[in-house]
Write a structure and sequence with these properties.
alpha/beta; 6-stranded parallel beta sheet; Rossmann fold; 12 helices; binds nicotinamide-adenine-dinucleotide
Length: about 350
């Protein structure tokens, strides 16, 4: 295993590793350890160049610092990438090589699953280092916890905008009926909200419609259907020049990462008097569950209370945005930065 260190301004440590025998080429980016060891998943993905992978690793690691800080977790932010080279690799060798690189940081960085990786891959990493979470039979599927946090964020947005967090009778348009979308629909049905749902996968839509009395619409219609709340739970970049003008909802609260195509769309949405719950504050339930259960050894009730506190975090963000006359996405960044200081 060859490990090189790269100096990147504003980042704590950035490592590039390669292990020819294992077909491994990877990056670990630690953005900050100000609040504790850096936590963030391992992404197994194909990139055109090493520079592209580095850009992604740096962006994602910084995002984890902000997300963990806002969630009130005693962890910093980091992320790692294993470059998929298209040649087909022995998964065990690949992830064990990554485990050795993680171990070289002696606990400064703790990894877990991310796009392209599974609990089985984390078991391979565990053969080389204890600095890994997301293991089989431990904290389990993060999605119901993410959905719970999004639901609490929705209640906070309703409280701020309408003076009551009761969602009974409110219409929620859910984009994406996957893992989070399904559990979010369950939370909302429980409190008497009305659901309009969509997905590009008809079977996923049917599953939600059959179980939660939802009305299905075509994917393109979801922005303009009459709704009180729009919940993006599919892809990033869905709040953009084409979609914002079509929104009928007064609140936007969802699980998808990077919902704003560009920061300026956070300003645009504000100008239309729509309250946007910053995604990385609203979707932290999964990371809270993983960190608290696996890394801090908390029990279920204590962990649930922490996820439910997303409500208070969102209220703080909305109040700060109003007080300082800034868009909510900027208030979220400011609050995270205050906590980092
Ligand atoms: P998922 O893959 O299970 O579900 C996403 C769904 O969106 C799929 O059913 C897919 O068919 C659908 N979809 C894709 N393109 C669509 C489109 N154009 N219109 C409508 N539907 C479309 O993913 P998930 O785990 O439910 O996560 C949803 C989002 O939340 C993702 O952006 C993810 O990054 C983010 N997120 C998830 C978690 C978690 O705990 N799973 C945590 C934080 C953030």
């Amino acid at each position: 295993m060859k490990i090189r260190e790269k100096s990147v301004p504003g980042y704590d440590r950035v490592l590039l590793g390669s292990d020819e025998a294992a077909g491994y080429q990877g990056i670990i980016a630690i953005h900050s350890t100000a609040l504790g060891p850096a936590v963030g998943g391992t992404r197994y993905w194909s990139y055109k160049t090493e520079d592209d992978a580095m850009t992604d690793a740096l962006r994602l690691a910084r995002g984890m610092t902000y997300k963990n800080a806002l969630a009130g977790l005693p962890f910093g932010g980091g992320k790692s990438i294993i470059m998929r080279n298209g040649k087909g690799a022995d998964r065990e060798q690949l992830f064990r090589a990554h485990g050795r690189m993680v171990n070289s940081l002696a606990g400064k960085y703790i990894t877990a699953e991310d796009v392209g990786t599974s609990p089985a891959d984390m078991e391979y990493i565990l053969k080389e280092t204890t600095y890994v979470g997301g293991l089989q039979g431990r904290s389990g599927d993060p999605s119901p916890h993410t959905a719970r946090g999004v639901f609490r964020a929705m209640q906070a947005a309703a409280k701020h905008k309408w003076g009551s967090d009761d969602l009974a009778g409110k219409t929620v348009a859910i984009q994406g009926c996957g893992h989070v979308g399904y559990f979010l629909a369950a939370e909302l049905t429980r409190v008497g909200a009305k659901l309009i749902v969509t997905d590009v996968d008809a079977a996923k839509v049917k599953h939600v419609v059959d179980n939660h009395r939802a009305t299905a619409v075509m994917p393109e219609e979801i922005y303009s259907v009459p709704a009180d709340i729009f919940a993006p739970c599919a892809l990033g970049g869905v709040l953009n020049d084409q979609t914002i003008s079509r929104l009928t909802a007064t609140l936007v609260v969802g699980a998808a990462n990077n919902q704003l195509l560009e920061p300026r769309h956070g300003d645009l949405i504000e100008q239309r008097a729509v309250l946007y719950a910053p995604d990385y504050a609203a979707n932290a339930g999964g990371v809270i569950n993983g960190c608290c259960r696996e890394m801090l050894g908390w029990d279920v009730p204590k962990t649930l209370a922490k996820t439910d506190a997303i409500y208070d975090t969102l209220l703080t963000i909305f109040a700060m945005a109003e007080r300082e006359n800034i868009p909510t996405y900027q208030a979220a960044d400011r609050l995270a930065e205050e906590r980092l200081r």
